[in-house]
């Protein structure tokens, strides 16, 4: 087969495909569509992934007996509070998405109304407290700070062999 | 349920600000940790984790603050537009942080491996250092031991009474101890024969060639007797042991020599041999003399009887006188032989040795025409009277002084001295001259009967042998030291106190020992 013959053959196939797409229109199913719920699913999944990674971190710290050292022990507490915070955020986000169960409405200056229908009032209070998630993530950060500070102190005392135990 | 909105707002905004502040404080701590040990992979990991956490805190907190601000300002629609972006960034930061946390174990394993390798390296380094230090210590101890050993062997080399020499295969002296220097007649400090050929000190150089050939052939030579020649030309009998050192540095082998001076022993052996020889000759001579003495007496008696009956002017009388004269001469020789053979016992009495010497010197001065000869005396006046046969001792002294006078010729010095090793030692009488001396080859024969270097008619060769016999009979000995051209010294050694329990020969032997 000559070079000219091959070029003509490729051009014929391309022309046929373009004409077929123009003359026979339909839904383009090659790329999946992403609706609004995917964002919250991904976010919730990220929270669970964060919980799992913090759990693994605690497991490794304990398995290697690093928690005997105060610095790593504080970091373990930080991971524990991050787990609590992630669970709290996961729950808050979940309830935010349940519009048929729970709804929040303004109730005057500085007031909000939490509508929970026939569900127990405790759910409203749980939701209210869950919204105070910084009470969990800020202690987590403070424990991390305390742990690093202790590690820095220990490393400074044993400057020659600075490093984790 | 209705509740206050403000706790949520305050906790949200305050918490968000705290999250930002604390996260950046964590970055600062992690950075300081990394500065302490930049090679520590855990600190590096924590630093980057804190950076991610700060990013998460900033994105989330800023979103929350903006949200609260817009809600309070009643701009919820704006927040509705921003919310998806803020949520997406927060989600991304969650995933990033969680993923980074999952690497903790892997990073920790890497750290452990590095720490283990580092510890192993440090351990190996410490072990090497320790080994190196120990090696230095061991080497130092060995060096000290070697130095002590070297000093000890050097000391043996230096204080040895025998010559210890190292010569190369060409026979050049490479090292020589002080005893060797002295033995060869060199001053130990200033001059040594190093660099000279050892063969040059051999009386017979061929002996060195034979010795070296034997050493090279069989590796050693034991107690080979040779005669060495000192620097001043004096001979010295010596025993040489030699061994080949094939392990010397370089390709050349060396020969180690140990040389023992046996000159004194050799002289003593010669004296003993001479004494034995003289004893044998004396025994033979005395036998012959005894047998000849009686016929000579008969001849002399009959000659004298015949002389009585002959007129003094007759020819026969003169012939008989000639016979009588020669018979008397023969009898004199026979008597000397008998004296030498000790057949006649000395007649001992207490004698002042110095007066005896003075008498003999006076006699010599008067009767030997020795006017230009200087007679010197040096007497040890402590010598007590000694029991001697004075006539015999005078005869010995006359013999020695006449020989000395003959040796110095017309002009010279003869010195007579005495010495006593008080209180029980022997006394010595030395007769020394500065005459022509005695050749070495004659020294061993001078006490032999009838041995003389004088021309015919000047001496019978019995003087010294007779003297030898007399002195031996007194339990003493007679020695000679001579150097051709420099004179001779005869030393008569006599016991100062007579001990009748000790036979003369035994006395001589015991003194010799």
Order of helices and strands of chain B: EHHHHEEHHEEEHHEHEEHEEHHEEH
- What form of chain A results from the Cα inertia axes? flat
Q: What distance lies between the first and last C-alpha atoms of chain A, to the nearest angstrom? A: 73 Å
Q: How confident is the prediction overall: mean pLDDT of chain A?
A: 82
The coarse silhouette of chain B is rod-shaped
Helical amount among residues of chain A, as a percent range? Answer: 55-70%
Largest interface: A-B, 46 and 49 residues
Give the strand tally of chain A.
Answer: 2
Structural class per helix/strand content of chain B?
A: alpha+beta
Number of helices, counting only DSSP H or I runs of 4 residues or more of chain A? 5
> H/E order of the elements of chain A?
HHHEEHH
Question: What is the average per-residue confidence, as pLDDT of chain B, rounded to a whole number?
Answer: 84
Description:
The complex is a heterodimer of chains A (165) and B (513). Chain A has 165 residues and is mostly helical. Chain A has five helices and two strands, in the order αααββαα. Chain A has a two-stranded antiparallel sheet. In chain A, strand 1 (103-106) and strand 2 form a beta hairpin. In chain A, helix 2 packs antiparallel against helix 3. Chain A is flat, with a radius of gyration of 29 Å. The mean pLDDT of chain A is 82. Chain B has 513 residues and is of the alpha+beta class. In chain B, strand 4 (220-229) and strand 5 (235-245) form a beta hairpin. The termini of chain B are far apart. Chain B has 13 helices and 13 strands. Chains A and B meet through helix 2, strand 2, helix 4 and helix 5 of A and strand 1, helix 1, helix 2, helix 3 and helix 4 of B.
């Amino acid at each position: 087969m000559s070079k000219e013959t091959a070029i003509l053959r490729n051009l014929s196939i391309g022309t046929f495909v373009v004409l077929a797409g123009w003359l026979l229109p339909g839904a383009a199913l090659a790329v999946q569509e992403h609706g609004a719920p995917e964002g919250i699913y991904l976010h919730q999944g990220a929270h669970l992934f964060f919980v799992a990674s913090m759990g693994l971190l605690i497991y490794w710290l304990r398995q290697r007996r690093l928690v005997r050292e105060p610095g790593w022990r504080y970091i373990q507490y930080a991971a524990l509070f991050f787990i609590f915070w992630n669970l709290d955020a996961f729950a808050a986000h979940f309830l935010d998405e349940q519009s048929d169960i729970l709804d929040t409405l303004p109730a005057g200056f500085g007031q909000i109304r939490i509508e929970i229908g026939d569900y127990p009032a405790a759910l409203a209070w749980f939701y209210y407290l869950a919204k105070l998630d910084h009470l969990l993530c800020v202690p987590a950060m403070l424990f991390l700070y305390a742990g690093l500070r202790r590690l820095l102190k220990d490393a400074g005392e044993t400057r020659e062999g600075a490093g984790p135990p | 349920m209705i509740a206050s909105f403000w706790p949520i707002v305050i906790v949200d905004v305050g918490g968000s600000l705290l999250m930002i502040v604390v996260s950046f404080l964590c970055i600062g701590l992690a950075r300081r940790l990394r500065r302490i040990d930049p090679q520590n992979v855990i600190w590096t990991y924590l630093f980057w984790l804190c950076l991610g956490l700060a990013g998460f805190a900033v994105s989330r907190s800023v979103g929350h603050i903006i949200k609260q601000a817009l809600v309070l300002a009643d701009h919820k629609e704006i927040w509705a537009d921003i919310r998806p972006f803020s949520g997406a960034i927060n989600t991304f930061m969650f995933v990033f942080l969680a993923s980074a946390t999952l690497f903790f174990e892997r990073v920790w394993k890497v750290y452990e491996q590095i720490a283990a390798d580092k510890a192993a390296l440090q351990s190996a380094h410490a072990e090497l250092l320790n080994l190196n230090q120990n090696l230095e210590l061991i080497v130092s101890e060995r060096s000290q031991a070697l130095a002590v050993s070297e000093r000890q062997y050097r000391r043996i080399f230096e204080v040895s009474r025998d010559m210890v020499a190292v010569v190369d295969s060409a026979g050049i002296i490479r090292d020589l101890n002080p005893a060797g220097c002295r033995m060869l007649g060199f001053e130990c400090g200033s001059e040594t024969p190093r660099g000279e050929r050892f063969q040059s000190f051999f009386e017979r150089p061929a002996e060195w060639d034979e010795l070296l050939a034997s050493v090279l052939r069989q590796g050693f030579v034991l107690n080979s007797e040779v005669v060495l020649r000192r620097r001043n030309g004096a001979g010295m009998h010596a025993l040489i042991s030699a061994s080949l050192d094939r392990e010397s540095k370089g390709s050349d082998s060396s020969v180690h020599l140990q040389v023992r001076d046996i000159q004194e022993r050799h002289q003593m052996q010669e004296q003993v041999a001479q004494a034995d020889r003289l004893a044998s000759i004396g025994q033979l001579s005395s036998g012959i003399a005894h047998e000849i003495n009686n016929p000579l007496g008969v001849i002399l008696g009959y000659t004298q009887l015949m002389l009585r009956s002959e007129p003094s002017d007759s020819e026969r009388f003169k012939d008989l006188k000639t016979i009588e004269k020669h018979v008397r001469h023969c009898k004199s020789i026979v008597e000397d032989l008998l004296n030498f053979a000790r057949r006649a016992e000395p007649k001992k009495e207490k004698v002042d040795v110095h007066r005896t010497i003075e008498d003999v010197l006076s006699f010599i001065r008067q009767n030997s025409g020795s006017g230009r000869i200087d007679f010197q005396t040096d007497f040890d006046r402590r010598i007590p009277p000694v029991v001697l046969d004075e006539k015999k001792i005078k005869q010995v002294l006359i013999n020695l002084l006449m020989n000395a006078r003959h040796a110095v010729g017309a002009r010279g010095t003869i010195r007579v001295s005495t010495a006593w090793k008080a209180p029980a030692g022997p006394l010595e009488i030395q007769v020394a001259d500065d005459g022509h001396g005695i050749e070495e080859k004659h020294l061993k024969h001078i006490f032999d009967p009838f041995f003389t270097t004088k021309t015919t008619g000047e001496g019978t060769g019995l003087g010294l042998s007779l003297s030898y016999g007399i002195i031996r009979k007194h339990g003493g000995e007679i020695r000679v030291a001579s150097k051709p051209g420099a004179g001779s010294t005869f030393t008569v050694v006599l016991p100062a106190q007579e001990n009748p329990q000790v036979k003369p020969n035994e006395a001589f032997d015991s003194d010799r020992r």
